[in-house]
Amino acid sequence: MLASEIPAVRVVHNPVGTGFAQAYRRGLELASKEYVGLIPGDNEIQPVSMRAIFQAVGTAPIVAPFTANQAERPWLRRVLSRTFTGTVNTLFGLRLRYFQGPSVYPTALARRLPTTTRGYAFLAEMLIRALAAGHRAVEVPMYIQPRQFGASRAVTVRNVVTSLKTVALVLWDVKVRRRPLG
Fold first, then answer.
1. 0.85 exceeded by the pTM?
2. How many CB atoms within 10 Å of residue 124?
3. Is residue 97 in a domain?
C-alpha cells in the first residue's frame, strides 16, 4: 500500500520467515540511501512518531526512539523493558531510555556494526556497539498504540535468555576486549 503511494518505498518479501534480525540485515544489504532505519510491520508505532523519528535524522549520527507512553504496554513487558534498560545502562555506563526501538543509523555505520545474535536483542546490540564506538545518539519520543492484529512475541523465556546472552557477549567485546565493533 505505502509503496504504491510513495515511489521511493521498496517492498521486499523474504521467501520464508527469517526472523526479525535477519529481515533487518536483508534490508540493510539492500539499502541504497545515506540513512537506514526500520519500521516494524505491526502498526504499533503511531504515525506521528515515525514522522518525528525521520525529522530527527541528521541532528546526530543516530536517532534512538524511546517509548514515551509505556503505560500502553502490558505490565510484564514494561517491567522487563525497564529492567533490561537499567541493566544495560549500568553495565555500559550509558543513560538511554530505551535500547530496543527502531533506531536510524547512517547506512555505512549500520553495515559496520556486528551482531552476535539473530535474536530479539539485536537492536540493543547495534545501539550499544555504536555508542561504545563513540557515535552520538539523539533520543526521540515514540508513542505506541494497541496492536491492530497479532500478539507481541517479545516476552518469551527464549527472548529473555537470548537477550541476556547477547548483553554478556557485547559486554565482553566492549568492556573486556575494548573492541565495540568486534
1. yes
2. 24
3. yes
Task: For residue range 55-102, list pLDDT tens digits in order.
Answer: 999 999 999 999 999 999 889 989 999 999 999 999 999 999 999 999
Full DSSP string of 62-92: EEEEEES-GGGS-HHHHHHHHHHHHHHHHHH
Residue 95 lies in a domain: yes
* 132 touches 181 (CB < 8 A): no
Q: Domain residues for 69?
A: 18-176
If one counts the domains in the chain, the total is 1
Mean pLDDT of the chain: 91
182, part of any domain: no
**Phi, psi (degrees; rounded to nearest 5) at 85:** -60, -45
pLDDT at 147: 77
Q: Does some domain include residue 11?
A: no
In terms of Cβ atoms closer than 10 Å to its own Cβ (0-12, 13-18, 19+), residue 150 is: exposed
Q: What is the DSSP letter of 149?
A: S
How many other β-carbons are positioned within 10 Å of the β-carbon of residue 141?
14
Query: Could you tell me the CATH number of the domain that includes residue 30?
Result: 3.90.550.10
Between helix 157-171 and helix 122-132 the angle, nearest 10°, is: 20
